[in-house]
Amino acid sequence: MPLTSIRVLDLTRLLPGPYCSMLLADFGADVIKIEDKEMGDYARRYTPLLDEDSAIFHALNRNKKSVCLNLKLEKDKASFLQMVESADVVLESFRPGVMKKLGVDYEILKTINPRIIYCSITGYGQTGPYAQEAGHDINYLSYAGLLHLMGEQGGKPIIPATQIADIGGGAYPAALGILLSLWERESSGKGQLIDISMMDGVIAWLQATLPNYLATNQLQERGAHQLNGAFACYNVYETQDSRWLAVGALEHKFWQAFCETIGRKELISQQHATLQEQHRMKYVIQTVIQQKTLTEWLELFECVEACVTPVRNFSEVVDDPQVKARNMILSLPHPTLGIVNQIGIPIKLSKTPGRIHSLAPKHGEHTEAFVSKLTSNSTVDDELSKGD
Question: What domain of life is recorded for the organism (predicted)?
């Protein structure tokens, strides 16, 4: 696989860092999860549990090894620094200054291994007045202005059901930064520091809204954007059986097909009408959609190109033929649990595809093998590469 020769020391926990290192591990990187000796990654204790660890921990930490170290102890810190000698990447998500206080920050590590790539994922980055503030996904969305735009006009902001800042603003930029740094190292021979701010990442997502303000200095109301439910052609409508139909008829040809199918041709010319007219159109369309069940509407739109789809729940998603064709839900054998279902790999490479070759490690599963080999003739590199 593309990253088979790359070793990552991952000190992160919960979601952003583990998701980033999972992306790398799925494509062959040797990810060694460094956990504290007490409870390890907090995500292990979430519910529901599959064994002694949570379902989300199993999902995020496949293809990894677990080594327990207490970096506040000189002996364990020395072991970590020895691991850095043969590593390519160190990934951490502590608040700025914590790694320096422990004596394992980038300035120290690059003297041990000048090729080391050191990636920090934090809420607000290593610099700026917010750098030391605590936060979670909702806080980064709120500071970035995205939360202000989410929801219906006149209503309160709506919290998204997935962690946009953690994954889209943190994990993916971090993975990309690591890959860019690995590529640059091929020519320079030197590593570098990667400073990922989840707030920065969310701001970078606002490509369809923030440029409008930058150009006009006009604030946008919640629910007043075409792609945020303001327009009738891009909305959701409730069916007779209390299900929902998603309509994404942005292009005029799709809007025309939609209006013709629901028997409201008079709405075709009103696609880009005023917001007041959009409210009236949404009411008219809702009245029509309410007259049939979801199944009946899907049958009517089956051969119509109008970007109309059902709003599905997870039980329907896992049985979706497209999801199955793309292998986005995988069933894997587990030594004690039987079969474990996991989310598949979204990046499809034709020549060197990613794969899941091992499931999430037990807390400290590889610590004993690692410690016993540190003082022996076998190198750490040899020992930790075994047992996949």
Answer: Bacteria
Q: For residue 232, is it within any domain?
A: yes
C-beta of residue 360 within 8 angstroms of C-beta of residue 58? yes
CATH number, domain at 72?
3.40.50.10540
Whether residues 299 and 328 share a domain: the answer is: no
Identify the pLDDT of residue 153.
86
**Catalytic residue flag (residue 272):** no
Catalytic residue among 53, 105, 166, 200: 166
Give the DSSP letter string of 162-208.
S-IIIIIIIIHHHHHHHHHHHHHHHHH----EEEEEHHHHHHHT-TT
Total-model pTM: 0.92
Annotated active-site residue 41? The verdict is: no
pLDDT (0 to 100) of residue 385? 52
Question: What is the structure's pLDDT at 221?
Answer: 87
Q: pLDDT below 70 — which residues of the chain?
A: 374-388
Residue 386: predicted pLDDT = 42
Residue tagged active-site, from 136, 148, 225, 279: 136
At residue 388, the pLDDT reads 47
The string of DSSP codes covering 101-153 is HHT-SHHHHHHH-TT-EEEEEESS-SSSTTTT----HHHHHHHHTHHHHSS-T
Q: Which domain holds residue 288?
A: 226-311
Give the pLDDT of residue 380.
52
Q: Are residues 131 and 167 in the same domain?
A: yes
